[in-house]
Amino acid sequence: MTPASDTFLEALPKAELHVHLEGTLEPALKIILARRNGHPLQNMTEDEIRAGYSFHDLPSFLALYYEGVDLLQTEQDFYDLCYAYLKKVASQNVLYTEMFFDPQLHTRRGVAFGTVITGITRARKDAERDFGIRSQLVMCFIREMSAESAEETFTQALPYLSDIVGVGLDSDEKGNPPAKFANVFRRAREAGLHVTMHCDIDQENTHEHIRQALEDVGSERLDHGLNVLDRPELVAQARERHIPFTVCPFPNMVIRPGSNEKDIRALLDAGMTITINSDDPGYMHSVYMTEALKLARDGANLTPQEVVTISRNAFNAAWIGEAERQTYLARLDDFARKEGLLPAA
Ligand SMILES: [Zn+2]
Description:
This protein has 16 helices and eight strands. The longest helix has 19 residues, at 113-131. It has one domain: Metal-dependent hydrolases (TIM Barrel). The two termini are 24 Å apart. The mean pLDDT is 96. It is of the alpha/beta class. Helix 5 packs parallel to helix 7 and helix 8 runs parallel beside helix 9. The structure holds zinc ion (ZN). Zinc ion (ZN) is lined by residues 18, 20, 170, 198, 223, 279.
């Protein structure tokens, strides 16, 4: 069958489930924030900033990423960051997005938890009013920091839990298994939050990390998680529990060349529930949702029907109420019907 066209991917109603707000910081906004806060980066051009963006694995990416994080100081900075991302993806027909944020990256350099989340929450409300896009927040713990630091962060979040839908785990996986954070994830679940976590590609002990995430920590999704494919018992468990995998074609292509050609099709063939996402578009050649879908399509020759299924997976996996979910699914069905992929109503 013919792969989905660019215009099809652009018009598709979408949901995003794996994007790091701090990773959406584009060079243009970096310069604005640097000027506002008197940071030396204010004298650089966008091209100069972009020229410094090269990474080949997780540690080299994180070094770059943490440098950008330092530019975020005030509530307005966090507002501008979140509003810019939501405005951008609303223009790509993203109806709903769940955004990761990493409070510890800010609190450890003296920015208050309240400053971070108040700016973000205000932007979410304004973007919904201005562009109709709905969003929720998933608070991630930094895995190379201590379990005590994660616990403290969760305590700081308690007054803001109504603005947070779930918790996640990200950053440097080496030597930092999911089990290290079992207690804080238990607290989060008891407080009614959802749980997801990163299982990055080809990490040390990756299969044990995936097993812990699924069996010991009760992760409802896996962020990346491609190494599931190496172990039939993990594939069977993920399939049985309909665990959604948030696949990110841009970083996959960089970290494991050929991944989009091989792994996306292999996940589909294995009966896994996958979604396609951007991850850190500000640092990844501005590959937002539509561009990420194009990379997935180019790699795996995704047909229009498969793309609609992937989008449906994302709405089904979203941590929202049933009424809201049905609204999105109805819009997706309308689109599929117009494209001749469903019988007329
Ligand atoms: Zn990620």
